[in-house]
Amino acid sequence: MEIKIGIVEDDPRTLSRFVSTIQSRANWSIAFACGKWHEARHAISQDSINVLLLDLGLPDGDGIDLIPWTLAHYPSCQVLIISVFGDEDNVIRCVEAGASGYLLKGQGDDELAEHLEDLMDGGSPMSPQIARRVLTQLRDYTTPNRFGNTTFEQKSFVSGSLLTSKELLVLKDLTIGYTYGEVAELRQMSLNTVRHHVKSIYSKLYVNSRTQAINTATRMGILDLK
Fold it and tell me: SS3 of 95, please?
């Protein structure tokens, strides 16, 4: 299966390196490569893509605004942020907008390829510094109870994180140990649909792995493992 990747990066050298990395891999192709917000918006509306590599600091607009624009056109598209901006505000805004992963610039070519493979396999690659910020944000929404355990406060974060019925089914299947392909067959979904549900689950729970999703959903009372 061919994976079509769009790239939005305003630094010419970095853009060229991303293009070379993608072109060196079998079954990966460049749908478009541009460095401006308006060029990207037009390209996204014209070219079907499976993955979007997105820089945030564009000269003519906020890269974050391209996330919902992309997902509106291609709901199963995986958006991977690669940026110099690692502050909490940008990270959380990107996750809430629907980004599947967030990397700080400085990745080697082999590392980038590995992160892309992880992304297309349903993972949510994050630089360690970014993952720490996400976990810190998650802890900010918790409070210890009198038994020393962690109880989630009833805030908009929690109510907004509740999974849909299909997402819950997918998560339960993953808890049992099914692969994405087995979940797709069991639930009569396409593999891309399963990946889209997993991406949504990770985004809502602020996690980047199956184990984290299961543990977090269980602590929040969303998932009952009994």
Answer: helix
Sign of the dihedral defined by the CA atoms of residues 21, 22, 24, 30, in that order: negative
The answer to whether 12 touches 60, Cβ cutoff 8 Å, is no
Using CA atoms, how far residue 146 sits from 150, 153, 155, 180, 215, in Å, is 9, 14, 19, 40, 21
Is 52 in a helix, a strand, or coil?
A: strand
Contacts of 34 (CB under 8 A, 6+ apart): 7, 8, 40, 43
Which residues in the chain belong to E strands, given as ranges?
A: 3-8, 28-34, 51-54, 57-58, 61-62, 78-83, 101-104, 142-144, 150-152
Task: Give the Cβ contact number of residue 56 at 10 Å.
Answer: 22
In this predicted structure, the answer to whether residue 135 has a pLDDT above a threshold of 60 is yes
Distance CA 121, CA 119 (A): 5
What confidence tens digit (pLDDT) does each residue in 41-93 have?
999 999 899 999 999 999 999 999 999 999 889 988 999 999 998 877 788 88
* Residue 196, SS3 per DSSP: helix
Cα gap 9→40, rounded to integer Å: 9
For residue 136, name the pLDDT band (cuts at 50, 70, 90).
low
Q: What is the pLDDT of residues 187-200, one digit of tens each?
A: 998 888 888 888 88
The 8-class DSSP code of residue 64 comes to G
Residue 124: Cβ within 10 Å count:
27
DSSP summary character for residue 65: G
